[in-house]
């Protein structure tokens, strides 16, 4: 195999490291911030960002001049998500869940200490939600994340807590002991009910999807305005969500999916 020049390998590595600097906490970064975090000069950052923008992997805000991930990243992410075996047998279940509840439905999993939406199906009377396939959110303040986290080993839960429990609304659970208690209730009841923990006015209900007995690898959820998803409606909606999640768990079991 032909060996690539050291300089070219170094540039490729720096480009990949640069892309990994963008996170949910820091979705936009300036040239000087990229330079400092990567430990290289501004001229190197300029060359890297110029090439990445040409290929669509980076975009630049015309006002702030900060960089952010570009459309090519989203396109690649969508391709990766479509390769999940579970995404091949979940659309019908999500569609029926939307029809039965009138709310937007999601299929989610955990990755890199975040919950990521693998699929989203909008309701006819949906409200605008800041979610899409590939979107990553905090685990502790989403029903999708909580429903999976409740069935994880103690070290995984500890890791999420150690990463921090940022407060996004007045309803966000930021106390580790309260979160653990909440997770114990979710594990007992089989569903999570998040009341405006991430966005004001938006609530959600999720139930775990099991890839193996006792191992929750995914969750199915509905999300909508708190006027429709609230303490009064939650019990009945939870039954529907749990039924959908159980159906998907059975499909995984019967098809012996590699997930």
Task: Walk me through the structure.
- It is a single chain.
- This protein is of the alpha+beta class and 259 residues long.
- The protein is built from nine helices and eight strands.
- Helix content is 42%, strand content 19%.
- A six-stranded antiparallel sheet has the order 5-4-3-8-7-6, sandwiched between helices. Strands 1-2 form a two-stranded antiparallel sheet.
- The longest helix is centred in the last third of the chain and has 22 residues, at 234-255.
- It folds into two domains: 6-70, Winged helix-like DNA-binding domain superfamily/Winged helix DNA-binding domain (Arc Repressor Mutant, subunit A, Orthogonal Bundle), CATH 1.10.10; 84-255, GAF domain (Beta-Lactamase).
Task: Please write out the topology.
Layout: H1 6-19, H2 31-38, H3 42-54, E1 58-60, E2 67-69, H4 71-82, H5 91-101, E3 104-111, E4 114-121, E5 136-137, H6 143-149, H7 154-162, H8 176-189, E6 192-195, E7 202-212, E8 215-225, H9 234-255
Antiparallel strand pairs: 1-2, 3-4, 3-8, 4-5, 6-7, 7-8
Helix pairs in contact: 2-3, 5-9
In short:
The protein has nine helices and eight strands. With 259 residues, the chain is α+β, with helices and mostly antiparallel strands.
């Amino acid at each position: 195999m032909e060996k690539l020049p050291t300089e070219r390998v170094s540039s490729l590595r720096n480009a990949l490291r640069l892309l990994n600097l963008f996170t949910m906490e820091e979705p936009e970064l300036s040239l000087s911030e990229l330079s400092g975090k990567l430990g290289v000069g501004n001229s190197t950052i300029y060359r890297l960002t110029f090439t990445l923008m040409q290929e669509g992997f980076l975009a630049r805000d015309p006002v702030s001049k900060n960089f952010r991930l570009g459309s090519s990243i989203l396109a690649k992410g969508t391709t990766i998500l479509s390769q999940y075996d579970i995404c091949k047998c979940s659309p019908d279940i999500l569609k029926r869940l939307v029809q039965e509840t009138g709310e937007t439905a999601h299929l989610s999993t955990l990755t890199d200490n975040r919950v990521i939406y693998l699929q989203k199906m909008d309701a006819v009377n949906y409200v605008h939600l800041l979610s899409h396939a590939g979107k990553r959110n905090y685990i502790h303040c989403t029903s999708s994340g909580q429903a999976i986290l409740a069935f994880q080993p103690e070290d995984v839960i500890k890791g999420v807590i150690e990463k921090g429990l940022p407060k996004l609304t007045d309803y966000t659970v930021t106390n580790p002991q309260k979160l653990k208690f909440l997770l114990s209730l979710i594990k007992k009841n089989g569903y999570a009910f998040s009341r405006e923990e991430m966005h004001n006015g938006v609530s959600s209900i999720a139930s775990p999807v099991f890839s193996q007995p006792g191992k929750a690898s995914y969750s199915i959820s509905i999300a909508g305005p708190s006027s429709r998803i609230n303490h009064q409606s939650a019990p009945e909606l939870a039954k529907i969500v749990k039924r959908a999640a159980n159906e998907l768990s059975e499909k995984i079991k019967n098809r012996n999916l590699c997930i």
